[in-house]
Recover the amino acids of this structure.
């Protein structure tokens, strides 16, 4: 008697799985293809080595040490998580922007200034107890990032200045501000190199391993918070509507300019928070050679996660693992860490080529020999529905 | 096509459809929005594969792998939305994908130009091959699409709602072209849901309902009522009985409104009128005479240069769309893709697009998904939106069902004023009847209704009073029940000066 209901439930689960697969299949496929392409580069790179012998199995060695470097043992895992933390936050920053139709290339600058802001306050409160110094420093970094995101958002809203152009310019300005302050007013007197003083009590407490700091927890919470914001609140509905169809948003009584401004501010705040986590969690001071790659890796993280805040977690973990494992890969397999950049780039390339993949998957899905197995309805049917 | 079946997740789009088209025949495919006409043609054109059934061409079973395969077999499709590149010339558009090469590197433009001119001459529509497509009227762009098909040696030509965007005169011209093509032995499959057109042009009519063939008719032995019933599955009132209206106090006053379009030219030039509660004011006019801008100024999407909009005694000039909604405005925009819907969003989300921020759909800033989903399921039921569920993206629905989402949303709350811009454009008779009934129901509930439509019949059938708009002015306001179609039509076309003077007096008196 309950069989129709049971069947419905089974088919419901099946369509859910199919839908889930259709949304991750592209990302998984791009990663696999990137690894294959990376293997090709590893093989080819042997040709230019001085005493190089051509070893076709070397990619396997490289990937093995990459994997062990990232997940082989507690220390490796903690290191991976530490690398992942700022990527989650900055990835969320870019993803939230994407949802509103904004391409925040400025995450890099926002991360830098966020770190700087948190360090400035951290130094000022270095002797205060941690429960005062830490929140204050975190808030300062977030606020500075927010302000630095607000600028391009506001400019876009009032004058239509494209955020890609303005944020690229703001990135170089951020770099200059950092250099000026770190080698000027913030420099430790009599120090040979341009670094600031230590933040003392404003440093994050360590939660796991030797350096698994508080930022891990912050990143995890923010991912769920952003998902909740985007999909469970009216503000998130406004962001998504403006991102999908600004005219309909206006019709619906939303104010796209306001939404754009505050979404960029939010995006900047998240990037600033990422910077604060790096500064307060690992560096404990600020230096002119601050890691600007986070803001750019974040774009890859958000794209791979297809702007889904929860998917940002595994996506950031992937890139974090590649960063963490690259050391061991370099030592054991003598692969230059730059190869990681190549892998990131290729993965991105494949993700951006998503439309081509969709067509490809559909071709495979509808090929007569495979038609018998209707296991790809999500990929084939999802896009081939009745046209509007 | 024999026994064609195609299932999509949750729906059977085609269910064992048989269709036979003979050479030299104009075969009309008639059906409601979402009945499965487009799916069937997509299968024929290789854009979709049938789950079962076969396609026979000249008696031979064939598998059509894709559009290019279809074209190679002489099957061509003219889509509802043209697939032309506006910045290229007519000749280049036609050549695209079918380039005739003079040698390995260069195109042979002369050869192809000659063929285009010759083809056009043969079928009676000579078009200058060097003109940019973007500068052509919609009617001529259509002809370029047909030429493109002929250039590819089409034997079977599928036209998907070819008249949807055409004026009556352009429709007549296209019909003449189609007749000539049929006479030359081409087979034409004509998809439509406009009954009178189908009766006029087709040799055979196949009616599809919910994925099945429900009848084949000879146009000489049938009529509109019979076809409508067949198509919808029940008796349809082509003209809804509007009953008595009981206008009460004035709800909306528009006074001396002047509005500029996006390019900065004044397209609404001092329009004034009043609508009473429980009354329908129709605005008739050829598209592009300022109706869209007038409507946008009233609902708050466009700032008027001068003039006043008064709603229930409050000066609502320059009110935001949000304030207008709060004051009881329901608005069905002319362009549902641009304004009315967010296509990637689920139907349920689209159903709360204008009310998402208030109870019961939100508590503060937190969405109440349970209420949104319940509202979605109810609206899908009540407005007969054909969809597997309310969680499906709105973009996957047919045009008529998309329009029902907009109507369900805007009609589904307490209103003071209802502004309808082309509410039934592109819809089938069943949906039109449904929407017209809803409009009458809202009128009877004491809502003031502004109905803008390029379909003169619609305005005449629904309105208590009709304002004729011509070049940004309302040249005349006439009584809806006694209005003479000929006369209104003439006013739409010419805006006769004499009438304008008369109208000015009437507006002042109203």
């Amino acid at each position: 008697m309950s069989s129709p209901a049971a069947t419905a439930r089974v088919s419901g689960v099946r369509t859910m799985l199919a839908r889930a697969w259709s949304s991750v299949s592209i990302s998984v496929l791009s990663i696999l293809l990137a690894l294959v392409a990376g293997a090709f580069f590893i093989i080819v790179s042997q040709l230019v080595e001085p005493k190089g012998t051509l070893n076709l199995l070397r990619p396997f060695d490289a990937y093995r040490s990459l994997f062990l470097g990232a997940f082989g043992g507690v220390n490796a895992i903690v290191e991976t998580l530490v690398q992942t933390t700022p990527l989650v936050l900055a990835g969320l920053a870019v993803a939230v922007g994407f949802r509103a139709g904004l391409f925040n290339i400025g995450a890099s600058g926002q991360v830098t200034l966020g770190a700087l802001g948190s360090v400035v306050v951290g130094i000022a409160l270095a002797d205060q107890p941690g429960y005062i110094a830490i929140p204050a420093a975190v808030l300062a970094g977030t606020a500075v990032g927010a302000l630095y995101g607000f600028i391009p958002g506001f400019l876009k809203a009032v004058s239509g200045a494209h955020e890609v152009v303005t944020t690229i310019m703001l990135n170089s300005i951020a770099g200059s501000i950092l250099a000026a302050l770190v080698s000027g007013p913030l420099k430790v007197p009599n120090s040979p190199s341009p670094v600031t003083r230590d933040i003392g009590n404003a440093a994050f407490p360590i939660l796991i391993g030797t350096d698994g700091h508080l930022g891990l927890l912050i990143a995890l919470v923010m991912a769920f918070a952003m998902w909740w914001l985007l999909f469970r609140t009216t503000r998130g509905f406004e962001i998504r509507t403006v991102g999908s169809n600004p005219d309909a948003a206006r019709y619906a009584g939303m104010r796209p300019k306001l939404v754009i401004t505050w979404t960029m501010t939010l995006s900047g705040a998240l990037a600033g928070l990422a910077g604060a986590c790096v500064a307060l969690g690992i560096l404990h001071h600020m230096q002119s050679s601050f890691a600007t790659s986070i803001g750019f890796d974040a774009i890859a993280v958000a794209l791979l996660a297809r702007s889904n805040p929860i998917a940002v977690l595994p996506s950031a973990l992937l890139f974090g693992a590649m960063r963490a494992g690259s050391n061991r890969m370099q030592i054991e397999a003598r692969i230059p860490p730059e190869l990681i950049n190549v892998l990131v780039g290729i993965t991105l390339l494949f993700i951006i080529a998503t439309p081509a993949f969709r067509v490809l998957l559909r071709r495979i899905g509808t090929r007569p020999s495979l038609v018998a197995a209707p296991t790809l309805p999500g990929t084939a049917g999802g896009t081939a529905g009745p046209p509007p | 096509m024999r026994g064609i079946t195609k299932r999509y997740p949750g729906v059977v789009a085609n269910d064992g459809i048989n269709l036979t088209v003979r050479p030299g025949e104009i075969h009309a495919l008639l059906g409601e929005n979402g009945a499965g006409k487009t799916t069937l043609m997509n299968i024929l054109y290789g854009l979709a594969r049938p789950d079962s059934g076969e396609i026979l061409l000249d008696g031979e079973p064939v598998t059509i792998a894709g559009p290019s395969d279809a074209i190679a077999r002489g099957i061509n499709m003219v889509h509802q939305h043209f697939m032309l590149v506006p910045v290229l010339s007519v000749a280049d558009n036609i050549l695209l994908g079918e380039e005739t090469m003079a040698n390995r590197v260069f195109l042979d433009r002369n050869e192809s130009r000659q063929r285009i001119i010759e083809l056009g001459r043969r079928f009676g529509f000579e078009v200058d091959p060097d003109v940019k497509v973007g500068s052509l009227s919609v009617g001529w762009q259509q002809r370029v699409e047909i030429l493109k098909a002929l250039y590819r040696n089409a034997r079977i030509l599928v036209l998907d709602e070819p008249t949807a965007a055409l004026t009556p005169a352009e429709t007549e011209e296209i019909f003449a072209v189609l007749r000539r093509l049929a006479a030359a032995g081409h087979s034409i499959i004509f998809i439509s849901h406009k009954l009178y057109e189908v009766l006029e042009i087709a040799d055979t009519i196949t009616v599809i309902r919910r994925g099945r063939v429900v009848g084949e008719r000879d146009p000489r032995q049938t009529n509109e009522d019979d076809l409508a019933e067949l198509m919808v599955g029940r008796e349809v009132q082509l003209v809804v009985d509007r009953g008595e209206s009981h206008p009460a106090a004035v709800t909306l006053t528009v006074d001396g409104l002047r509005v500029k379009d996006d390019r900065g030219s004044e397209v609404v030039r001092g329009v004034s009128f009043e609508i009473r509660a429980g009354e329908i004011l129709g605005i008739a006019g050829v598209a592009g005479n300022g109706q869209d801008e007038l409507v946008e100024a009233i609902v708050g999407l466009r700032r008027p240069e001068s003039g006043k909009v008064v709603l229930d005694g409050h000066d609502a000039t320059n009110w935001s769309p949000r304030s207008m909604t709060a004051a009881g405005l329901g608005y069905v925009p002319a362009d549902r893709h641009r304004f009315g819907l967010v296509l990637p969003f689920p139907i349920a989300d689209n159903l709360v697009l204008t009310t998402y921020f208030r109870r019961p759909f939100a508590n503060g800033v937190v969405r109440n998904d349970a209420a949104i989903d319940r509202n979605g399921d109810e609206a899908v039921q009540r407005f007969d939106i054909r969809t597997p569920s309310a969680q499906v993206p709105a973009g996957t629905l047919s045009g008529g069902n998309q329009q029902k989402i907009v109507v369900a949303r805007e009609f589904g709350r307490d209103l003071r004023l209802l502004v309808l811009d082309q509410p039934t454009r592109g819809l089938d008779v069943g949906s039109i009847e449904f929407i017209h009934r809803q409009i009458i129901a809202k009128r009877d509930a004491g809502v003031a209704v502004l109905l803008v439509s390029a379909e003169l019949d619609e305005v005449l059938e629904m309105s208590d009073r009709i304002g004729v708009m011509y070049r940004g002015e309302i040249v005349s306001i006439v009584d809806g029940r006694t209005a003479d179609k000929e006369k209104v039509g003439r006013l739409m076309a010419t805006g006769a000066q004499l009438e304008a003077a008369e109208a000015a007096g009437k507006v002042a008196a109203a």
Notes: The CA atoms of residues 178 and 188 of chain B lie 8 Å apart.
